[in-house]
Each structure stands twice: as structure tokens, then as C-alpha cells.
TrEMBL record:
InterPro entries: Spore_Ger, UPF0353/GerABKA_families. Pfam families: GerA. It comes from the Bacteria. The chain crosses the membrane at residues 287-313, 333-352, 364-390, 410-435. This is Spore germination protein. The keyword Transmembrane helix applies. Belongs to the GerABKA family. Keywords: Membrane, Transmembrane, Transmembrane helix.
């Protein structure tokens, strides 16, 4: 059980300091307690070494307080007439002050003061803004989120210079007290989705939030579905575009990934530079992605069904070619496909976990060597290698990793169904998959929107993106307040 920190601030520094040292931060070697005097009043600065700006404390706090403290006749005048720092506030509860110290701020306790002063001194080691490695684009911004939440809100604010952009702070995790920011545009946002999000975040009761993935799993609609119902991104321009559509973003401190709600499936296979280039090129690339999704989903299952049950439906020359390539293969088509699919899954996982310096090399060499050796040994046929290669490339075209993983699981399901009853199994699997997707919702929005949307305007930005000057309305399925984005 977590120990509760008391709220009461004692009248003397020694009483407060004894409690803080002995009860709260005993054996915490990184805590700094700097005791000094402001005229006749004893004071102490409390901060965590490595998380606070010592130069600011030395030059603008301690120097001023020590050398000019004798000019003050009342302890309550120190804040307004002596402290030369721009960002500070007074708190009346000791527990709030301790929470601020744990976040990198500095607490100032003074004899006779019925509160504590919190001085903004956060200065921990940070990673600079760099290009996101997982969402590369041909045209568009090269800046990405970092692990520092305040940097991330600034990147979004830079793109939305609007007073109606709201950034609501939250603190999640009974022990970690992780800072969380909820971003939305007040006169556009879908209020129903916002209410659902706020309610679910309030219901989170957990010791620690270490990444935005924790929040994503705790607030999603259906935890049993492999399909992501919340969009994650490292790109501030993607977050800004989502906010302009009436959606909501959640930024979590210590995580370079923002999460966006509601999320629908078409959002997950679109790319940011779809909107940065001509509509014809963007539409062509979207159609390529759609074909890739369909191909990666059904191609291996189709091979198993055709070679095992329905050889009569393929041309005679192709049938002879497939039969010749499979001559000497000791396994049925289902086992052959399963072996190669699992081998590819192992290889992808290994490449992801290996250091970048050798990961790409191992992926290329491993794929070539394993494929060639498997064919030479007669374990799999050459056409199976071609099918798995096309399937894997098609799966990589899907920009969202979580969505591609969900389709990979669905592909295994279709392979098993096709091995049992052939093409009928594929159709049955696709029907079950479609039923699941139709039933899914993300914060009240159907997951297949705008495919199932009754409004024809929503189809202007689906599989084909019409010219930008004709996209005058925001998506109707989002139920935004302000529906017009271009006059």
C-alpha cells in the first residue's frame, strides 16, 4: 500500500525538513537539501540532483535571497519583491510540493510561511528533436516527438496557432505520477468522444504509466481485438491534422508516441504525405496500399486452397508449373505455407530486436540463405518462396505496425480455414473478419467509417483523395461542431 504524504505544512523549516528527510526521502542519495538564511528566517531548497537547473537556483534564487533578504520586513513579501524567477507558484499542501519536486521542480520552505514556493527548474537530460524512424515520408516535416512532453506540446502548438487549442494536464499512476496532456480544439472536437476519453482516463488506477502504450491498452473499447482502435504516431503534423478533424490526442511524458482517438481503419493505412502531394499521385498510392492489404491477407490462403482443393480453376500450364515446382516437397501445401510464414515471422522479429547496425544485414542475408537452402533441400517449392516474399512486402506497405500485425494474425486464420475447406474456408474467414470489424467501435465511432458512412462526402478522402480545394467539409462521421474547414 502506498504511503500517503501529509498535507499539513508545519510553521518551522526544521519540523518540515525532519519529516521529509526521515519519512519520505530516507536513503535517497540524489536528494539535495540546501539550508540557508534569508535575514533572520531559516530556509531550505529541496530538489533532485540531475533534474533541476542549478545555475538558475544559484544566480536567481539563492544569491538574491541571501544578499538582499535583509531588505524584507515580512516573510510574505519574499515571493513578490525578492525572487527574480518568472515561473513559480505557491502551494498550501506539502504533498503537492513533494509531487512537484519529484517532477524536477524545486521547493522552497521558509520559517513562518504557511505554504511552500515551487520554482520551475526542470532540466533533465533530453533527446533532441529528430526525424521519426518509424514513419518516414517523401515530403513533409522531419521533426518528431521526443520523450519530453513539454517539447511535444510545443511542436503541436507551432502547427495550431489557435486560442481554441486546449491542453488539459493529468497525472496518472499512483507511484509514477506521469504527466499526461489531452489535446483538442474546443470548437471542433467531437464532444461525445471527449467525454468518453475523460471518463476512461479518470478510471485508470494503476501504480505506474511508463509509456503511452499503457494508456492505449487501458482506454480502448475492445481489449480482445487484435486490431488497433487507437492510432499512435511520432509525427506532430499527424496529430495536428487529427485535431483539425475533431479528434483528440493524448501525450504522455517519457514517451515519443502520441495516441489519437477515435481511430478508424482508413486512418491507419493512410500516410501523412498523401496530403502533401498532388491528388492523383496520392490516390494512386492509396490504391496500391489497398491492393497490398488484400494481397497480403489472402494470397497464402489462396495458394493452399487452389493447390489442395481447386486445381481445376487454374490454367493447365500454370498447374503443370506448380506441380513441377512442388515435386519432391514432402509436405502438403498447408504445412509448407505454415513453415514459411513462421520462418518469416521469426526473421522479422529478429530484425526488429537486433541492433540497427546488423539488423538490416541479417534480414537480407537470412532471408536469401534460408529461402535458397529450403528450396535446395526440397522442403519448400520455389513458388512458395515467391508467394511469401510478395506477401511480406505487401504487409510492409501498411504504414501502421499494429495494423500490419493484426492482418498477419488474420492471415494465419485464413490459411487454417483454407486448409480445411478450401475457397469456402477463405470466404468464411473473410465473413467472420468483416463481422468483427463492423462490430468494432472506437469511442463511439464505427471502426469501418467512412466505408459504412451514409454521407457521400466522406468518400472524397477514402481510397481516392480528391483535389484539396474540393475537400471543404470535415468528415461527417466524426460529428464535429464546426463542419466546414474550407470556404
Amino acid at each position: 500500500m502506498k504511503e500517503e504524504i501529509r498535507d499539513t505544512i508545519m510553521p518551522t523549516v526544521d519540523e518540515n525538513l525532519s519529516y521529509i528527510k526521515e519519512e519520505l526521502f530516507k536513503d535517497a542519495s540524489d536528494m539535495v537539501f540546501r539550508e540557508f538564511y534569508i535575514a533572520s528566517w531559516k530556509a531550505v531548497l529541496i530538489y533532485i540532483d540531475g533534474m533541476a537547473d542549478k545555475i538558475l537556483l544559484d544566480d536567481y534564487v539563492m544569491e538574491t535571497l541571501i544578499f538582499k533578504g535583509n531588505l524584507m520586513s515580512d516573510v510574505n513579501e519574499i515571493k513578490d519583491r525578492l525572487l527574480t524567477v518568472s515561473d513559480m507558484k505557491e502551494m498550501k499542501k506539502l504533498s503537492e510540493g513533494i509531487d512537484a519536486v519529484l517532477s524536477g521542480e524545486t521547493m522552497l520552505l521558509i520559517d513562518g510561511l504557511d505554504g511552500v514556493y515551487i520554482i520551475a527548474t526542470r532540466l533533465w537530460p533530453v533527446r533532441g528533436v529528430s526525424e521519426p524512424s518509424g514513419e518516414t515520408v517523401i515530403r513533409g516535416g522531419r521533426d518528431g516527438f521526443t520523450e519530453t512532453m513539454r517539447f511535444n506540446t510545443a511542436l503541436v502548438r507551432r502547427r495550431i496557432r489557435d486560442t481554441r487549442l486546449k491542453i488539459k494536464p493529468k497525472s496518472l499512476g499512483a507511484r509514477s505520477k506521469t504527466d499526461v496532456a489531452i489535446l483538442y480544439i474546443d470548437d471542433i472536437v467531437n464532444e461525445d468522444a471527449l467525454d468518453k476519453l475523460m471518463s476512461r482516463i479518470e478510471d485508470i488506477k494503476i501504480d505506474a504509466i511508463l509509456d503511452s502504450g499503457y494508456v492505449e491498452q487501458l482506454i480502448e473499447d475492445n481489449q480482445w481485438s487484435p486490431f488497433p482502435q487507437i492510432q499512435s504516431t511520432e509525427r506532430p503534423d499527424v496529430v495536428a491534422a487529427a485535431l483539425y478533424e475533431g479528434r483528440i490526442a493524448v501525450l504522455v511524458d517519457n514517451s515519443p508516441f502520441a495516441i489519437i482517438v477515435p481511430a478508424v481503419m482508413p486512418n491507419l493505412f493512410q500516410s501523412p504525405d498523401d496530403y502533401y502531394q498532388k491528388w492523383i499521385n496520392a490516390s494512386w498510392m492509396r490504391l496500391i496500399r489497398l491492393v497490398a492489404i488484400i494481397g497480403s491477407l489472402i494470397l497464402p490462403a489462396l495458394y493452399v486452397a487452389v493447390t489442395s482443393f481447386h486445381t481445376a480453376i487454374i490454367p493447365t500450364k500454370l498447374a503443370y508449373s506448380i506441380a513441377a515446382s512442388r515435386e519432391g516437397v514432402p509436405f502438403p501445401a498447408f504445412v509448407e505455407t505454415l513453415i514459411m510464414e513462421l520462418s518469416m515471422a521469426f526473421l522479422i522479429e529478429a530484425v526488429i530486436r537486433l541492433p540497427k547496425a546488423i539488423g538490416s544485414t541479417i534480414g537480407i542475408v537470412g532471408g536469401l540463405i534460408i529461402g535458397q537452402a529450403a528450396v535446395s533441400a526440397g522442403i519448400v517449392s520455389p513458388i512458395m518462396i515467391i508467394i511469401i516474399s510478395i506477401t511480406s512486402i505487401s504487409n510492409f506497405i501498411i504504414g501502421n505496425y499494429e495494423l500490419s500485425s493484426a492482418f498477419r494474425l488474420a492471415r494465419f486464420m485464413l490459411i487454417i480455414f483454407s486448409a480445411v475447406i478450401g475457397l469456402y474456408g477463405i470466404m468464411l474467414g473473410l465473413i467472420l473478419l468483416l463481422i468483427h470489424l463492423v462490430r468494432l467501435k472506437s469511442f463511439g465511432i464505427p471502426y469501418l467509417s467512412p466505408i459504412i458512412s451514409p454521407d457521400i462526402h466522406d468518400f472524397k478522402d477514402l481510397f481516392i483523395r480528391i483535389p484539396l480545394r474540393n475537400m471543404k467539409k470535415r468528415p461527417e462521421y466524426m460529428k464535429t461542431k464546426d463542419k466546414i474547414r474550407q470556404k
